Amino acid sequence: MGSLEEPTSATKSLECAKKVRPLVKEMYARAHEAKKQGRPVAYCMVMSQYDEILRAMDVTPIWTENYGGLCATKRDADRFLAKADAEGYSMFLCSYATTGIGFDALRRELEEIPADAPDGGMAEPDMLLGSSAMCDPRYKWYQALGRYKDTPIYNIDVVIPPVDAELGEIRDYYIKYQVEEIKGLVAFLEKATKKKMDWERLNEIIDLSEETNRLWRECHQLRKAIPCPMPAEDHFRTFVPGRFWLGTQEARDFYREMRDELKYRVENKIGVVPQEKYRLLWGGGLPPWHTMKLFNYFGALGAVFVRETAYIPYESVDIPPLVTHPLERLAYRAFGHFTYRYEGSRKGCGNPHVQLILDWLDEYKADGVVMHQVMTCRATTIGQTHHRQLIQKYVKLPVMFLESDIVDVRTYSEEQTRRQIDTFLELVDSYKTANGC
Amino acid sequence: MASRLAGVKELYENRIRRAEDLRLSGSKIIGYLCCFPPIELMTAIDLVPCRITGDIKEQVTRGDAYLETLMCPYIRSCFDLAVKGKYDFLDGLVVPHSCDSVQRIYDIWKYYAKPAYSHFIDVPHMTHTASIEFFKRELERFKQSLERYAQKEISPENLVQAIHLHNENRALLRELYRFRRHNPPLLSGVEATQILIAGMTLPAREYHELLKSIIPEVAARKELPGEEKPRILIYGSEIDDTGFIELIEQCGADIVMDDLCTGTRQFWHDVELGDDPLEALACHYLMKIPCPRTYKPRTGTHAEDLENRFGYLKEYATEFKVEGVILYIIRFCDTHGFDVPDVKDYFEAMGLPILYLEEDYAITAPERLRTQVRTFIDLIG
Ligand code: SF4
Ligand code: SF4
C-alpha cells in the first residue's frame, strides 16, 4: 500500500520517491523562513534557465507552478480556481496560473494566507521572475498579479529556435540574446538584493547542476531494464529535485542515491509490478495531478510507464572550450537542450518530439504510448494528435489520449477514464500478439 | 461613377477568388498569420502578402483529424480551410511566434498543407534593448529566406519604398477611421471591417488606390442626416468576418472604434524610418503593436502599469466618443485572457460599461448573443 497521506496520489516504488514529499514541504518552509529572516524570496517559473542564478544570489525560490500541482494532489485547488473565476479569469487559462492567481487574490482579500493552504501556502514574494520559456502563461501570470501586489517583476525571454532553422545560421544570435536576457535578470537581482553576483560561485553551482543532470539522466537510462525498476508515478515525484532544487547539493545527492537504488533494483530484477505485462511511454502532456492514483490502475493491470517526455533532465551539450563565462554556459545549455534533436530528427521522421518517442519506444522496448490532453495547457497539448499520426506512421503501436487537466477536476470522470484504460490495454495486448511478442 | 464602397463588399466576399486570379496572372502569393510578419519585406520583393483568415460560418471538420479542440478556435478554423484546400492558391506560408497556438500550428500546417515555401519568424515576447537586436537578426533571416525563394535581392531602396507605401496605407486607414468620430459615424463597423479584411489580401499598391478612392465617398456623407446610437469600441483579437459586427449594429449600436489585431493594431502607428530599415521594422513590430502577447515591463504601481499598457485605449475612447466597450475574447486565448480583468478595470475606471464575451470563433447561438448585446445597449441608453 502506498502513502495514505494524500488520497489522490499514486503508490511509490522507490524508497527515494518517498523522500520527495518532505523536500516539497521543506521548499515552502524555507521560503517562509527566509521571509521571516528578511532574506529575498522570489516567485519563479521552471525551465527559465535561471535556477543557478538564484542559488548564487541566495534568493529563495517558490516555484509557483508546483504550488498548482500541490493543491491539485491535495484536492484543494477548487477554492483558488473559484476565486480566479470570480476575478474574471477564464477557466480555460492555464490552471497552474489560475490556482496561483486565486491564491494571491484570496491572500490579498483576507490579508493573510488562506486558512490551511497546502504546505502553509506560498510565502509573500519580494520579486516575481516570469519567463517566456515554453508558453505564454509564464509571463502573463505574473503580469496579472499586479492586481494584487506591487511586487517588482522581471520577465525574461527564453528563446526556442524553430525546428526548421539552420542551427549554424542562428546559433550565435540566439545564444547572444539568451545571455543578454539572463544578464538583465542578474542586474535586476543585484539591484533588488543589493548584492553583487559572484561569478565564480555561479560557475561552481553550474558544475553542480551539470553533475545533477548527469546523474538524473543515468537514472533514466537504468529504466531500460526489464522489468523496469521505476514507474512514471515515481518520475513525477522524483523530478522535484531536478526542477525545483537544481544547483543544490541536495539535488545532486538525491539523484546519486536514486541511481544507486535503481542499480540495485536492476541487478536484482526488482520490477514495479509483480508481472510486467505492458511497457508504456508517457508521450505528451503533464500529468493529472488531481488523480495520480490513476497510475496504480495501470499498474494493477500489469502496465508500467518506462519513460516520460515531461520534466526531463537537461541533455549534455557540447560547449566550445573557450566558453567559460557562466552566463554563456547557461545560454549554450538552453540552446543545446532545446535543439539537440533537431538535426537528427531531420534524418528520421522530421519531428524532434516524435523522433524522441520513436527512439525511446525502441530503446525502452515499449508497447504503447499515453498522452494527456490537458484542457488548460496549450503548450504541452497542441500537436498531440499530429504526433499520434506520425508515430503510427512509423510503428504499429496504439496511442491513447487521456482527457482531463493538471489541476481542474471539474470535467474529469474517473469511471470513464478507467474504461478507456481497459480498452487501451486490451488494444496493447492485441498489438503485442500481432507483432509476435 | 460606380460606388467604390459598394464594390468593397464584393471584394471582401470574393477576396479569395481575387487572390486566386492574381496568382493566375503570375503573382506569387504568400499567406501569413497574425499581424506580426513585416509585410513590407514581401512587398519589397514583389510577393503579395495575403493574411490568412478563418471562416466563422464554416464548421471545422477535416482539421479535427489533426488538431486538438482545446486551442485557439480561430487558428483551428484557418488550418481547417487550409487542409480543405481553400488556401491551395498560396505559394507560401509565413508564421510568426505570436502566441502558443500560432507557434505550434507552424509544423502541423507545413506537414499537412505542404506549402512550397514556408518560414517561421521568432518574435521575442520581451521588449528589452537586446530583444530588438535579436528580432532584427530574425528579420534579416526572414529577408534572406524570401530572397532565396524569390531568387532576387531586396535592395535597401526597395525596402524603404515598400515601407513608405505601407505607411501611406496606414495613414489612409487612419484618415478613414477618423470619419467614425462623427455622430453618427460616417463609416459603419461593417464597412470598416470589409475594407480591412479585403485590404489584407490585396497588393499594397492596389489597396492604396482603393483607399484613396473610398475616402472622398465617405467624406461626402457628411451632408446626410442620421440617427445617433450608442457608440461602441470593440476590444479583442481576430474579427475577420462581418457577421458579429453586423449583429451588434443591427441591435442598435454603432461600432466606432476597435483594438483588434485585424483592426487598428495593424495601422495605428507608422513604421518610423531611420538609417536602417530592418531596425525600423523590428522596432515597429515589437514595440508598436499593442497585442498582449508582447510584454511591457511594469513601471510603478498597478494603476501606473495599467496606464502604461492601456493608455492608448483612453485616447481611442476620448477621440471616438466611445460610450461602451465589448470585449470579444476568443476562448483558449491565454495572452488576451490574462489581460481581461486588467482591461476591464481600466475601462471601468473610465466609467465605460463593458460587455464581456468569451466566444468560440463561431456564432452558434445568435439569439443569445443578440439578447446579451441588446441588454447591454439598453444599459448604455
Ligand atoms: S506549460 Fe502549460 S501548465 Fe505549464 S505554465 Fe505553461 S500553460 Fe501552464
Ligand atoms: S486569438 Fe489569441 S490564441 Fe488565437 S491567434 Fe490570436 S493571440 Fe493567439
Explained architecture:
The complex is a heterodimer of chains A (437) and B (381). Chain A has 437 residues and is of the alpha/beta class. Chain A is built from 17 helices and eight strands. In chain A, the strands form two sheets. In chain A, strands 2-1-3-4 form a four-stranded parallel beta sheet, sandwiched between helices. In chain A, strands 6-5-7-8 form a four-stranded parallel beta sheet, sandwiched between helices. The longest helix of chain A is centred in the middle third of the chain and has 27 residues, at 167-193. Mean pLDDT of chain A is 95; it is low at 1-5. Chain B has a domain at 4-152: Rossmann fold. Helices cover 50% and strands 12% of the residues of chain B. Chain B has 15 helices and eight strands. Chain B has a four-stranded parallel beta sheet, with helices on both faces. A four-stranded parallel beta sheet of chain B has the order 6-5-7-8, sandwiched between helices. The chains are: A alpha/beta (437), B alpha/beta (381). Chains A and B meet through helix 6, strand 4, helix 7, helix 15 and helix 16 of A and helix 5, helix 6, helix 13 and helix 14 of B. One iron/sulfur cluster binds at residues 65, 94, 96-97, 134-135, 137-138, 286, 377, 379-380, 406 of chain A. One iron/sulfur cluster is lined by residues 65, 94, 96-97, 134-135, 137-138, 286, 377, 379-380, 406 of chain A.
The total count of strands of chain B amounts to 8
Element order of chain A: H for helix, E for strand = HEHEHHHEHEHHHHEHEHHHEHHEH
Kindly report the oligomeric state of this protein.
heterodimer
Q: Supply the CATH architecture of the domain at 4-152 in chain B.
A: 3-Layer(aba) Sandwich
Distance between the termini of chain B: 40 Å
